[in-house]
Structures are given as structure tokens and as C-alpha cells.
Design a protein that fits this description.
The protein is an alpha/beta fold. The chain folds into two domains: 3-184 and 378-392, Glycogen Phosphorylase B (Rossmann fold); 197-376, 3-Layer(aba) Sandwich (Rossmann fold). Helix content is 43%, strand content 14%. The chain is built from 15 helices and twelve strands. It has helices at residues 7-10, 12-23, 41-55, 69-82, 91-107, 147-157, 197-206, 228-239, 259-270, 285-294, 309-316, 329-332, 345-357, 359-376, 379-392; strands at residues 29-34, 59-64, 114-118, 133-138, 162-165, 177-180, 215-219, 245-250, 276-280, 297-300, 321-324, 340-342. Helix 8 (228-239) crosses helix 13 and helix 11 crosses helix 14 (359-376). The relative contact order is 0.14. Uridine-5'-diphosphate binds at residues 40-41, 44, 191, 219-221, 250-251, 281, 283, 288, 306-310, 313. Uridine-5'-diphosphate (UDP) binds next to helix 3 and helix 11.
């Protein structure tokens, strides 16, 4: 995939803009660091962002920190706590986090012009800062965190030169500069590109999902915060009025130890209903693309959410989306215009019935959603924001204000 391939989707001037901006960063080195190469939105974005930056002549690399079960157990607790969930953390938990960071610091060179750290897991690497610029990119909504965890992380965060949050409502008061940059999807990736009905049919056959009635789908890691059980409950209420199938599909991320447990729980709760399809999927973008396209309604009933890339992906496919009004979802969905927002199981069930009973209304929401994504949440806009951010870090000698 090359930048010019995006011209038919976003227009030539957008791509020319990117070339102009990147000329001023030519030869500069950017290093992204996160905690998983697959699974979850961060990996999804870096997978495309890094090659495109390189095509633009901005020397970009991506490193992944390592950690054992214990470390990822702690970071999962941190993640939940940053979303405001009460978690009991021990002194040992914090020590495991710091010690793992120290080991990663030893094995990771961080001498790029800009070191771009994603999320809390690698935050302690800032201890290695020496002369170059460091950015902390927070993909989580930290507007109402458990104070114990936020205060601990903030000791590291304040040493960065800049922080990036996905939306104004996600950020915290911090002493350094903040940029607000929402994430994006790649319209040409296997996850989002147009695919023919033959591929869609093949995937539905593979998973044994008949297309005899409307299909309602949630695609998410098996994570309590994605509320798969709540989706099941909403489906059960709606199904009393309108017949449909439910697909709950997802994998688990390598940095999420709770996935297998939640998957089992969902399996048990769904047992006995032949219209519920629970799919444990490996990372297979074409299959996810096909499932989204085969669906009549896409649900994302998260209790907490970062930005919610699954919503963006579904809107881009012009699907009617029913999603909780949490995290970045209200930036993507204006209620009854580009999707439906819900606040409870009953609310979700009500909207689900409405969408399934009014296909014309549902279709219009999907069309509006696609245009909203085209204008705001495609990779090219994200790339532009990052290039501007890099320029504003004064690594080129130019002074740029965001
Ligand atoms: N995803 C996937 N396989 C799965 C579940 C999710 O590839 O089994 C993808 C999904 O399509 C989306 C990303 O992982 O691109 C999830 O991002 P999101 O922001 O929705 O949630 P996160 O997992 O980062 O909390």
C-alpha cells in the first residue's frame, strides 16, 4: 500500500499536504514503543502508521516491550484502575511494574530524535531520557482514574516533553504541553478495504453462521469492560420482538490475562441458544472485515472505552452502529444521526429493536457514519496530526506551534 492509493478516498490535496509536511522531517528518527504487537487498537494503528511514515521519509521504527504474566497482570489492573474501576494494588505490584520497566530499559535503545511511548505499560522507560524528545501517547480515558494508580504513573508522565490524548475529555491537568489527537482506521487495510460477497459468504460458512435472519454483532476482545454479557442480555430482550442472531467475536490480546476467563463466562451464559455464535478468533483481519460486512447491526456496548476503533470500522462500512456513550464513542456517533447511543441494557435492547424494525432508518445512520469517518477518522488525518506534532517538538530547528 502506498500513499497515492489513498487519493481516491481522501483526495489528492490531503496526500500532497502530507508530503509537504514530511519534507521538513526528512531523516529524523521516530521510535514508537508499546506493549503488544497484535491485539487491540494501538497495535492496529502502528501497523499502518509506521510504514507510511517511512514512505514519507520519516525514519520510523516500532519496538514492543516484553513482560511476563505477572507484569501484564499488574498492567491490566492499572488499565482497569485508570478507567476508574476499584482495584486493590499491592506494593509488590508497583515493584513488579518498575522492575519490568528497568529490564526493558536495559534491552531497548532509545536514541531516536523522538521516542513515542504508547500507554502506561512502557511509561517508566522515560528514566532513559537524555537530550532527545519524549512523547507519552495515552489511548485510555484517564479523566476519572483511581488516584493511587494515576499518582504513581504521573510521576513518570510529567517528565515527558508532551502528552497526547484521544479527546479533550480524556485528559488530565499536566505541566507539559498536551495535544488532542483522535485515532484512526486505515481504509485500505485488510480489516477495512472493500471485499466481495464471495469472501463474506466464505467466512460466514466457515463459522457456520446462517444468514436466514438479521445478524447483530459485537467484535471485541473478551474483556469485562466490553460487556459481552450485557450484549447477550440486550439481544435476549430484543429477540422477544424481532428474531435475529447474535455474533460475539473476538480474540484476546497478549497483554490481557483476563481474556480466557471472560470467554468461558460468555460461553456458559449463552449455552443452549443456537442463534448465538461465540467465536474465538485469531488475529484475522479479513475475517473481521467479512463479519462486520455480513452484519445488519454492529454493537459496541462497552462499559468503558478508549476511542473504540471497532465503532469506526463498522461506521466506515456504512453499518448502523449501536454503542454505549462512553470514551470516544460519542465523538463518532451522534445519536440518531450517525448511529445510536445507549446507556443501559434496556436502552440497548430498545434501540436494537428500532434498528432491526426500521432498515431504512438504519441504512441512513450507516451512510452518515461513513461520511463522518471519512472526514475525521481516517489514517491520513492521523498521520498529518502526528507530523505536525513531531514538527512542534523543535527537533528540526524550526519553530512550529500547534
Ligand atoms: N480486534 C481484532 N480481533 C479481535 C478483536 C478486536 O482484530 O478479536 C480489533 C478490532 O477490529 C479493532 C481493535 O482490535 O481494530 C480494537 O480496538 P478498540 O479501540 O475497539 O478496542 P481495544 O481493544 O483497543 O480496547
Amino acid at each position: 500500500m502506498q500513499l497515492d492509493d489513498y487519493i481516491p478516498i481522501v483526495g489528492r490535496s490531503v496526500i500532497e499536504d502530507l508530503r509537504l509536511l514530511s519534507e521538513r522531517l526528512s531523516g529524523r528518527r521516530i521510535q514508537h514503543i508499546n506493549s503488544t504487537a497484535v491485539g487491540g487498537g494501538v497495535a492496529e494503528i502502528l501497523n499502518r502508521m509506521v510504514p507510511l511514515c517511512n514512505e514519507l521519509g520519516v525514519d520510523s521504527r516500532w519496538d514492543v516491550i516484553t513482560g511476563g504474566e505477572r507484569f501484564f497482570g499488574v498492567t491490566k489492573k492499572f488499565h482497569n484502575a485508570l478507567h476508574g474501576k476499584p482495584e486493590s494494588l499491592t506494593r509488590e505490584d508497583f515493584e513488579v511494574f518498575v522492575e519490568n520497566g528497568r529490564l526493558n530499559a536495559e534491552r531497548t535503545a532509545t536514541d531516536a530524535d523522538i521516542v513515542f511511548i504508547h500507554d502506561p505499560q512502557p511509561v517508566t522507560l522515560i528514566e532513559k531520557k537524555s537530550g532527545n524528545k519524549w512523547i507519552w501517547r495515552c489511548h485510555v480515558d484517564v479523566s476519572d482514574p483511581l488516584q493511587e494508580v494515576w499518582r504513581f504513573l504521573a510521576d513518570y508522565v510529567v517528565r515527558y516533553d508532551a502528552a497526547v490524548f484521544s479527546a479533550p475529555g480524556f485528559s488530565r491537568e499536566l505541566p507539559m504541553r498536551q495535544a488532542l489527537i483522535s485515532p484512526s482506521i486505515d481504509p485500505l487495510s485488510d480489516k477495512n478495504r472493500d471485499i466481495g460477497p464471495d469472501i463474506v459468504d466464505a467466512v460466514m460458512n466457515k463459522y457456520g453462521i446462517p444468514r436466514d435472519k438479521p445478524i447483530v454483532t459485537q467484535i471485541s476482545r473478551f474483556d469485562r469492560l466490553k460487556d459481552p454479557v450485557g450484549v447477550l442480555e440486550a439481544y435476549r430482550i430484543a429477540k422477544k420482538n424481532v428474531d435475529c442472531r447474535l455474533v460475539l467475536a473476538g480474540g484476546t490480546a497478549s497483554d490481557d490475562p483476563e481474556g480466557a476467563e471472560v470467554y468461558q463466562e460468555v460461553l456458559e451464559k449463552a449455552a443452549g441458544d443456537p442463534d448465538v455464535h461465540i467465536l474465538l478468533m485469531s488475529q484475522n483481519d479479513i475475517e473481521i472485515n467479512a463479519l462486520q460486512r455480513a452484519s445488519d447491526v454492529i454493537v459496541q456496548k462497552s462499559l468503558k472505552e478508549g476511542f473504540g476503533l471497532t465503532v469506526t470500522e463498522a461506521l466506515w462500512k456504512a453499518k448502523p452502529v449501536l454503542a454505549s456513550a462512553v470514551g470516544g464513542i460519542p465523538l463518532q456517533i451522534r445519536h440518531k444521526y450517525s448511529g445510536m447511543l445507549c446507556h443501559s441494557v434496556d436502552g440497548a435492547a430498545f434501540s436494537l429493536k428500532q434498528l432491526l424494525n426500521s432498515p431504512e432508518f438504519a441504512k441512513k445512520l450507516g451512510e452518515n457514519g461513513r461520511e463522518h469517518v471519512r472526514n475525521n477518522f481516517l489514517l491520513t488525518r492521523h498521520l498529518r496530526d502526528y507530523l505536525l506534532l513531531f514538527l512542534s517538538m523543535n527537533i528540526t530547528g524550526d519553530v512550529v506551534y500547534l
